[in-house]
Design brief:
The protein has 385 residues and is α/β, with parallel strands linked by helices. It is built from 9 helices and 18 strands.
């Protein structure tokens, strides 16, 4: 009888312990959940929060918040309407404070802002599939240090080598430039450059090519935390007060010369293209004028490209550029982009001079969603002849 009493007592204690454990256990949260119908469900656990919402670049809530509803277990949840295939970014707002989603380990940095990302895809023909890592031959993405005699620095860039690069055959090179506040990691992380190139090449939609993504800030050797200045807080204007020995455009051939001497490149005009977004589009604009015989393809994406009217040197540079007959001078921008006026002025100038160019305009503004589209389009236009 005594033994039975002890056994019953132990069972009761065990059950009480299990109940307490269950009451205090944090629910397992999965977020985001990509649903079969194309909607996306977000879940966030915080039983003490008063208001929780999702901030993201989804069409339905752009410049707004998607409010979440609290469940009895302390999990907040919300489901979007059907989203188009795309790569999306978002954050969580908890009682007025911005957080990344602790249940989502996929995070990108844009200057100093961290955001979660996810991809919606419905078929092999959509943008989501293009931006995803698929079962195709993969190129190599490397962080490479090079000497820049013009700037007097050792600098870092990102180099993409296509899967078929074997050190024997020569490949054309696309130089891909980031915008203000970016660095040599921007196009790889935010722009999905390697995924786009892997997929386009595998599908036979573009020529296999080397892609070079340099750091466009002449006062910074590399991305924050990757050079001797240490882990400073990036703000888009780091060390600009120091000045530089030369501009990005003036030092650009240091990059080209390094690539031609260290990789199997097609080291002539027909094997080189340069394109960039925003500030990088402005750099492309300047490079096209400084080195008109060095590149055959130019792509200005949402470019900071100001026409210098009544400037004899500018007029001479532009005349020399278009007299050299580049194979492609391409301008792309969104209808709502704040740099639209500069691009309209540039097009009016080119039209007035009879200079040949191609133009693409789509919806949206100064956003990575557009720049991924422009990279996809530009890559399919170059090195085809």
């Amino acid at each position: 009888m005594k033994r039975l009493t002890i056994i019953i007592a132990c069972c009761i204690l065990s059950m009480n312990s299990f109940a307490q454990q269950q009451l205090g256990q944090r629910p397992r949260v999965t977020s985001p959940v990509i649903n079969q119908d194309g909607t996306v469900t977000f879940n966030f656990y915080d039983p003490s929060a008063q208001r929780v919402s999702i901030n993201g670049d989804f069409e339905e809530i752009r410049n707004q918040r998607l409010n979440m509803t609290k469940q009895d277990n302390g999990v907040w949840t919300v489901t979007t309407s059907v989203l188009n295939p795309e790569l999306y970014s978002y954050s969580i707002n908890v009682d007025g404070q911005r957080f990344i989603d602790p249940a989502n380990s996929y995070v990108n940095r844009d200057i100093a802002t961290l955001s979660n990302i996810f991809i919606v895809t419905k078929s092999t023909d959509d943008k989501g599939h293009l931006y995803a890592v698929n079962n195709v031959p993969h190129g190599t993405l490397s962080r490479v240090w090079y000497d820049s005699p013009t700037l007097g620095q050792q600098r870092r860039m990102t180099v993409y080598l296509p899967a078929s690069y074997d050190g024997k055959k020569r490949f054309p090179v696309m130089y891909l430039l980031h915008g203000h506040g970016g660095d040599e990691t921007a196009w790889g992380d935010l722009g999905r450059a390697s995924q786009i190139m892997d997929n386009l090449i595998a599908e036979g939609k573009c020529v296999p090519m080397i892609v070079v993504m340099p750091n466009g800030n002449p006062t910074c050797n590399a991305a924050p935390g990757w050079w001797h200045e240490g882990m400073y807080t990036p703000d888009g204007n780091a060390f600009n007060q120091r000045g530089a020995k030369a501009s990005m455009e003036e030092s650009f051939m240091d990059i080209v010369n390094f690539m031609d001497s260290h990789y199997m490149t097609i080291a002539k005009r027909s094997g080189r293209a340069v394109t960039g977004l925003s500030m990088g589009g402005g750099h492309t604009f300047g490079i096209s004028r400084l080195y008109p015989d060095s590149f055959d393809y130019y792509g200005l994406q949402s470019a900071a490209a100001r026409v210098q009217r009544n400037n004899a040197k500018f007029e001479e540079q532009m005349a020399r550029l278009f007299a050299s007959k580049p194979k492609l001078y391409w301008i792309a921008i969104g209808k709502d982009d704040f740099l639209m006026q500069q691009n309209t002025d540039l097009r009016q100038y080119l039209d007035g001079k009879g200079y040949k160019y191609e133009y693409y305009e789509n919806d949206g503004g100064h956003i990575w969603r557009n720049w991924r589209i422009y990279l996809t389009m530009f890559a399919q236009k170059i090195f085809k002849d």
